[in-house]
Amino acid sequence: ETGVTQTPRHLVMGMTNKKSLKCEQHLGHNAMYWYKQSAKKPLELMFVYNFKEQTENNSVPSRFSPECPNSSHLFLHLHTLQPEDSALYLCASSQGGPQETQYFGPGTRLLVL
Amino acid sequence: GENVEQHPSTLSVQEGDSAVIKCTYSDSASNYFPWYKQELGKRPQLIIDIRSNVGEKKDQRIAVTLNKTAKHFSLHITETQPEDSAVYFCAATPKYNFNKFYFGSGTKLNVKP
């Protein structure tokens, strides 16, 4: 279960704070993803990176800003979030696009006060 | 875009019985249908997937069937065991945009010993 790691595991932030979530994959994959998992809602794909290039942004508000400095690391920068942004944020990676097996990280549980 | 509906939202079965979870999709161009299992407090993990060029795929006690005409696919678990208790998510990806990935809302399966 160490193929995809995420830090921090838990985060509490105020609406005016700036924080960043980090994801690292040790599987040699070329694609990385950010998902949002809220209670009673489907997993929502937020961003897709393929070979460090962002290939998808699913209408995510600009208060979420992704960064992929290399194929192994993915960040999600958070700025002036709203309470409804409280959720579990999951990172995943795959060799190839979403039509290959995605390996998920443990997630960051975010609470926005 | 794609719309994936999943039923039932909760399912309770006796150990040893079979469980069936159904998903429907709206985009006839979708061609990849994975199933992910998420145990309580853990990350989602791929358990089986099917592509649109086959109608059925089996892996030990789990099987997935696909009906392209009716645009639905199902997960079948036979001889259920308590460790099968988890939330199961179906998903679909349209072939015209492999960066799109749509999950169903999940089915919470409870296997009673």
Q: Could you characterize the architecture of this molecule?
A:
The complex is a heterodimer of chains A (113) and B (113). Chain A has strands at 4-7, 10-13, 18-25, 31-37, 44-50, 53-57, 64-70, 73-79, 87-94, 103-104, 108-112. Chain A has 113 residues and is mostly beta strands. In chain A, strands 2, 4, 5, 6, 9, 10 and 11 form a seven-stranded mixed sheet that branches. The mean pLDDT of chain A is 91. Chain B has 113 residues and is an all-beta fold. Chain B contains no helices and eleven strands. Chain A binds chain B through residues 1, 4, 33, 40-45, 48, 50, 55-56, 58, 90, 97-99, 101-102, 104-107, and chain B through 4, 32, 34, 42-46, 49, 89, 91, 93, 98-106.
| Portion in strands of chain B | over 45%
Tally of DSSP β-strands of chain A: 11
Distance between the termini of chain B: 41 Å
**Oligomer, anyone?**
heterodimer
Question: What percentage of amino acids of chain A are in beta strands?
Answer: over 45%
What attributes characterize this protein structure?
heterodimer, A: 113 residues, mainly beta, 4-stranded antiparallel β-sheet, 0% helix, B: 113 residues, 6-stranded mixed β-sheet, globular
Outline of this structure?
The complex is a heterodimer of chains A (113) and B (113). With 113 residues, chain A is an all-beta fold. Chain A is built from no helices and eleven strands.
Question: How is the topology of this model organized?
Answer:
The complex is a heterodimer of chains A (113) and B (113).
Chain A: E1 4-7, E2 10-13, E3 18-25, E4 31-37, E5 44-50, E6 53-57, E7 64-70, E8 73-79, E9 87-94, E10 103-104, E11 108-112
Chain B: E1 4-7, E2 10-14, E3 19-25, E4 30-38, E5 45-51, E6 56-59, E7 62-67, E8 72-77, E9 86-94, E10 102-103, E11 107-112
Parallel strand pairs in B: 2-11
Antiparallel strand pairs in B: 1-3, 3-8, 4-5, 4-9, 6-7, 7-8, 9-10, 9-11
